[in-house]
Amino acid sequence: xxxxxxxxxxxxxxxxxxxxxxxxxxxx
Length: 28
Description:
By secondary structure, the chain is mainly alpha-helical. It has one helix spanning 3-20.
């Protein structure tokens, strides 16, 4: 429906992949 939601999901997936790669990311 909203492009903003899709973009947010993409960024979340990217962050999860980075954290799995060994990076520690804190989002508040």
